[in-house]
């Protein structure tokens, strides 16, 4: 820009010339620095000293160390290293060769961490090459091709010095067309612990072996006597099947000196699978489970594995202590679930494993603690909390023992974070697993060499290791148990070990809790939903004749709703809680009032039936049905505004309860029926219906009375008419008999007085007929023979 500002034809001023020269120098500085960094194209030192510095194209070949045996060599051993080298570049590598290189000892645990982060960095020092016949050569490495290598070196050739951890690097060197000189194109560093003699003071190591799984059982059970359990999926069957994760945990842990840490829910779930059980599919339908034999075999192997070993039982369902401490304590009743989960251990672990577990330990997620977590962790009876050293940190140059009294009778058992996290991540590749094992052993040896005092170290790995992680753990622990610097110890002994007076005993503040862990916690809404389910269950169980059929499965389900396994699976956690609540609501709705339509009531008093239906398989009792009149001035129930009656209904039946009512006026009155428990809490939804009252008045009674009187009079008249007709018929019959006597002399002679008498009667009758009628004389009685309808007022509709 200065040059463009000069006027044409004039020379630049001294200031402008200085600016141009300075700019040119700055622009050429990066190029000069690049030239200075180019390595000299000299061959490797035949004496086996440091190889030439790697060129800028280094790293084009990846080196994988798949195995290193023995992991902790001693005098006279031969170290065997196998693996592969892969050319990831675009050009072939010629004159390639793989050799072992031994670096200096690593004196601190932090130096091991630093090297592990740069294990494949070709720019760093690789160490002294063993060389000679202990080198494997390749004429050419084609692009994209992986070649195996196998190098065996007597430990004496490694020139190891005093006890400690040494860097062992596997390096691939060669040439390319673009850079035709010998250079390191790929490297993989690992660790070689060296302790050939028995240590004077060994580190006591406690390794926790966790048997924990996700939630599998639902709250739903069958209606049969055995209450067949229902599983949300069949994943647990896969885990305990041969080769599955939990099968491997038992098989690998059987031969190790470990402290078994077990979730009782896992045992209860597998034990349920030994009998009939159902599995719910994605479509909601259930099918019969078929893994009874697998479940029985797994439990049998576990019983053998834990025999004589220390077993620590977590509370049932492995509740998330941090979530409870941060989000649940303000919700009424949340802490009671933790106590119930702890009490459930006694009915699970001893029965299934035939051994008495320890319930003195609480284990927050990743050992992260703060004062609220400590308070919750010990609220259910535990007096020892398994923390981790990256949470409860020490500012010391060495690693102190695990036990830390923190006051109030509580001991923090601080697990070593470096050793506890050594087996996290993807260990599916053999190279990753080998590096994890060697790093774990290196940390253990370096820790033991820090001081001359014996210390107790606890290793608390992740709760649910994968199969590959479990295999790496078992390999490392098996090697450690045979090493010269460590000996096994159970968790109870580690908690009782003499604490280091210089160790930190102050629990970090709540603000120090890792944000990444807090994001995974169960929210307050989860605990509110659990509390709502608990209230509904408490209101429901009091009416049951056998409450254990409901209380036990739902109690365990609520423990599972607080499980640590829900971390990172928020959607699944919500779905599980909703299913539990919905299923309970369905059972509660199984006992209900049948809806009623409008009821008509005639008269001063009547009975109103209300039906209670029980669709449960068991009977219900301790219920009261209350019928309440919303307008007691018009309609009273049992002489008052309401009446209550006790209700007991057998399973699968209905019962009608009758209430006496009395009406005072015509019209509609609204009535409400509501079920109550004995403690006065409403049960279920009320049923409301209208009662139409048509009251009977005195005027109506008079009309009815008059009608009855007319009915009586009409009946009396009909009676007299029929009596007169009968008399007339008898007279006519007598006259007929007299005529018969005249026609029959024989009959007349037998009754001499009859003819005279009859003639006299006929003469009198004829004279009366001829006489004039008197007003007071009755008319001839012929009405009974009439076919016409009765007169008005003589018929009564009934």
UniProtKB/TrEMBL annotation:
Residues 54-65, 74-89 have a biased composition (Low complexity). The keyword DNA repair does not apply. This is DUF6049 family protein. Keywords: Membrane, Transmembrane, Transmembrane helix. Residues 730-743 have a biased composition (Acidic residues). Residues 755-767 have a biased composition (Basic and acidic residues). It comes from the Bacteria. Residues 43-93, 496-518, 730-798 are annotated as: Disordered. The chain crosses the membrane at residues 700-719. Coiled coil: none annotated. It comes from Streptomyces coeruleorubidus. The keyword Membrane applies.
